[in-house]
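Issue 218. Parser rejects a valid record. Input:
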Amino acid sequence: MSDAPAAPPSVLFVCVHNAGRSQMAAAFLTHMADGRARAASAGSAPAATVNPTVVRAMAEVGIDLSAATPKALTPAAVRDCDLVVTMGCGDACPVIPGRRYLDWALPDPAGQGIEAVRPIRDEIERRVRELIAELG
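Output the parser choked on:
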């Protein structure tokens, strides 16, 4: 038996373009978990850049997403995590046996102004806080 500490749980946040919801969720988890969990994000059809309104909304709460880039969802990314949180990617997310899945139904910030993105950001933050508490 090893005395090495267990690796923190890893969470993969997935949405279609990996330009809004999943980027915010991964950033919040990284920012708030203090090393107790790891976050990654991906999209089933990644955009070229992160939504600039999402970048602005996150900057308002002290999180810089200006250097973040959308990433493609791969089966390996799903295999390498403990929990997959989907946010509107539908059937595009590969299901790997042995992984836990949650689906967060959240509005898509694409094409929305800052007034519409703020409540989405705040709801994601609330859900991430609950998830961190659940993960321990």
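Fixed in the parser; the record now loads. The CA atoms of residues 17 and 45 lie 5 Å apart.
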